[in-house]
Structure to design on (418 residues):
């Protein structure tokens, strides 16, 4: 069957086909990535992309909202139920925009925000110096204890007492352990700050009950929708009833125009998928896989930041191997293993040429890989690292990666039990 895309734009059709083949023929270990279900994909590619819906259900600025109002209300109700919150805003186009909206809901330009420094695993949008958030707001960064890799709450409290931030941000993009959201909430309460908890990476684990939820300890929770939550690309803001109006106004009309209703319909589908025993099982397997992958890598002589993981990701510290992170990431990519180079907390190396590699298990777990495959993947990674300048070995590892992928095809709809 020739699809309309194939007929009208064979070049883009072919590129999409090649990307689908690439995603299927490589071991995808980037911890912020996943494979969405066919149901989520179908909603993403739906006619709702044609519809303007500025405003919120029941109060829009355009006519023809009979369906959009229902779709957005369903997404909101599902988010509220799943995360156990008073209010959900499902319109943010991305995680970064959701954070900016959260700051602007509770702080004015020039006010102080305080988040984890980027080289320690924080996100750009937490006020890092190259990000616009640091230009609008006075940004103060806290760091992790460089020795233990743990949050040093005495130091964070000291910094908060000194700078009296309007917003304290908890959450990270590269932290492999459980985050103590309660401690952040207590510090925020002490200095009169709003606690924004950004669970972009771990929201799938949080709804599965496998990472403590920040909901009880945070005024606002932000998340992406496409990482462990396994939905379409986007952002979401969750909050108590008292902040609902401020959050909604900050997203629209504060920062955005029309919401992406096709994305919101796909988010509704993903939230339904996440509210299931199958999803809890999936999230459990993500963590079980990460633990085995971490242990197997350490057995092969790799140093892991904090000595392991409690969640879906880990940071390989390559200083003992004397291989730059970027060089290993590129060699692994040639061997059909997709990763990203990353700074190691406390390492003075520049973010563009860091000594770390960040990997995670959400996508390969969606394909059905289990503990046994994690051991194989660890040894594939080790062989590339040990033969970093030997293209023959790298090509051989690539063939073995392909073979492994062929045994775990990207599922048609992975919520159907295999
Ligand atoms: C991924 C991520 C974001 C940003 O999400 P985008 O959708 O890429 O803008 C924000 N915060 C954290 C902690 C993240 O890991």
């Amino acid at each position: 069957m020739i699809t309309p895309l194939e007929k009208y734009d064979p070049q883009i059709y072919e590129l999409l086909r090649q990307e689908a083949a690439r995603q299927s023929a490589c071991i995808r270990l980037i911890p912020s990535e996943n494979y969405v279900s066919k149901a989520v994909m179908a909603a993403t590619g739906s006619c709702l992309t044609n519809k303007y819906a500025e405003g919120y259900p029941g109060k829009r600025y355009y006519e023809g909202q009979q369906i959009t109002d229902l779709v957005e209300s369903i997404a909101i109700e599902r988010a509220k139920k799943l995360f156990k919150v008073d209010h959900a805003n499902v319109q943010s186009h991305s995680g970064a925009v959701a954070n900016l909206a959260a700051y602007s809901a509770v702080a004015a330009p020039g006010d102080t925000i305080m988040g984890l420094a980027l080289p320690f695993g924080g996100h750009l949008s937490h006020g890092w110096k190259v990000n616009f958030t640091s230009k609008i707001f006075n940004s103060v960064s806290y760091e992790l204890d460089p020795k233990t890799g743990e949050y040093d709450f005495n130091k964070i409290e000291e910094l908060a007492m000194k700078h009296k931030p309007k917003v304290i941000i908890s959450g990270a993009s590269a932290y492999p352990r459980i985050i103590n959201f309660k401690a952040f909430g207590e510090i925020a309460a002490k200095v009169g700050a709003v606690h924004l908890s950004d669970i972009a990476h771990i929201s799938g684990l949080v709804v599965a009950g496998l990472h403590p939820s920040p909901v009880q300890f945070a005024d606002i929770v932000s998340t992406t929708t496409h990482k462990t939550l396994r939905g379409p690309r986007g952002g979401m803001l969750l909050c108590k009833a008292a902040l609902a109006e401020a959050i909604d106004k900050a997203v629209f009309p504060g920062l955005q125009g029309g919401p992406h209703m096709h994305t919101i319909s796909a988010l509704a589908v993903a939230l339904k998928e996440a509210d299931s025993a199958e999803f809890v099982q999936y999230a459990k397997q993500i963590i079980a896989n990460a633990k085995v992958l971490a242990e197997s890598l350490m057995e092969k002589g790799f140093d892991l930041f904090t000595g392991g993981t409690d969640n879906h990701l880990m940071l390989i510290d390559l200083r003992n191997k004397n291989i730059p992170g970027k060089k290993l990431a590129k060699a692994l990519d040639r061997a059909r293993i997709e990763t990203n180079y990353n700074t190691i907390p406390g390492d003075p190396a520049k973010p563009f040429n860091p000594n770390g590699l960040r990997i995670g298990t959400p996508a390969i777990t969606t394909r059905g890989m289990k503990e046994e495959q994690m051991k194989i993947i660890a040894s594939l990674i080790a062989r590339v690292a040990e033969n970093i300048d030997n293209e023959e070995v790298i090509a051989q590892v690539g063939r073995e990666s392909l073979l492994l992928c062929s045994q775990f095809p990207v599922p048609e709809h992975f919520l159907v039990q295999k």
About this structure: The pocket of pyridoxal-5'-phosphate is lined by residues 32, 94-96, 99, 123, 125, 171-173, 198, 200-201, 224, 235 (CB under 6 Å).
